[in-house]
C-alpha cells in the first residue's frame, strides 16, 4: 500500500430500506516517521556510528515499524565509511498482495569522529603506527606552505559588509552607472 492509495468497499455505506447502499472509500495518508523514510517498498534510514565502530565493527539494535528489534552487525575487518549505503533484505515495507515479502531496509552510515585533542601525543603516535601509512609529500622550492583553518560561511559576508571585498576599487576607481539619455 502506498500514500494516496484508495481502498474501496463496494456497497458497504449507509444502508437504508429501499435505497442502494453507497461505497466506503478510504484514502491512505502516509505520516512522516522520526527514523524511517519510505520509498515504495523500501525504508531508508541514517545510522550514526563512532569512528571505532566504523573501523573495528559494531552491533546496533533497530526498532522496526512492526515493533520488533533487529540487530545490525558489521564484521571485524569490514570498514564502514561515512556515506556508505548498505541494506537488509526483507526488512522494508510489505509488498502489496504479497504479505510474506518485504522491501529492503536501506541504511546510510554517518561516521562521527572524535573531538580534536582526544588522544595524548603518545597514543596518537601509537594509533599512527596501527593505521596504514600516509603518503608523504616531498616539498620543493616551488611549493608554498599554507595553513588550513576551520571554514566560516559568514566570513565572506562580513568582508563584504565591512567593505573589504572591493578594497581594490580604491586604487582603481570606476565610474558610476550612467543613465541613458534620449
Automatic annotation (TrEMBL):
Compositional bias of kind Acidic residues: 138-150
Statement: the UniProt record of this protein carries the keyword Thylakoid: no
Keyword terms: Chaperone, Metal-binding, Repeat, Zinc, Zinc-finger
GO biological process, one term: protein folding
Pfam family, one: DnaJ_C
Organism superkingdom: Eukaryota
A GO MF term: Hsp70 protein binding
Domain Chaperone DnaJ C-terminal span(s) in chain numbering: 1-114
Family matches, as InterPro entries: DnaJ_C, DNJA1/2-like, HSP40/DnaJ_pept-bd
Region ranges (Disordered): 137-182
SUPFAM superfamilies on file: HSP40/DnaJ peptide-binding domain
Protein name: DnaJ-like protein subfamily A member 1
Species whose genome carries this gene: Microtus ochrogaster
Organism lineage: Eukaryota, Metazoa, Chordata, Craniata, Vertebrata
Amino acid at each position: 500500500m502506498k500514500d494516496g492509495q484508495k481502498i474501496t468497499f463496494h456497497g458497504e455505506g449507509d444502508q437504508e430500506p429501499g435505497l442502494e447502499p453507497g461505497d466506503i472509500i478510504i484514502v491512505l495518508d502516509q505520516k512522516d516517521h522520526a527514523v524511517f523514510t519510505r520509498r515504495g517498498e523500501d525504508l531508508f534510514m541514517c545510522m550514526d556510528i563512532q569512528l571505532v565502530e566504523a573501523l573495528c565493527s559494531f552491533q546496533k539494535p533497530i526498532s522496526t515499524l512492526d515493533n520488533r528489534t533487529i540487530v545490525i552487525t558489521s564484521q571485524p575487518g569490514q570498514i564502514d565509511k561515512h556515506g556508505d549505503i548498505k541494506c537488509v533484505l526483507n526488512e522494508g515495507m510489505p509488498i502489496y498482495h504479497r504479505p510474506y515479502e518485504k522491501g529492503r531496509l536501506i541504511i546510510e552510515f554517518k561516521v562521527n569522529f572524535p573531538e580534536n585533542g582526544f588522544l595524548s601525543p603518545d597514543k596518537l603516535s601509537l594509533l599512527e603506527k596501527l593505521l596504514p601509512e600516509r603518503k608523504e609529500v616531498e616539498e620543493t622550492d616551488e611549493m608554498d606552505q599554507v595553513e588550513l583553518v576551520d571554514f566560516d560561511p559568514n566570513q565572506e559576508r562580513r568582508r563584504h559588509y565591512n567593505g573589504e571585498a572591493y578594497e581594490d576599487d580604491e586604487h582603481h576607481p570606476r565610474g558610476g552607472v550612467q543613465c541613458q539619455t534620449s
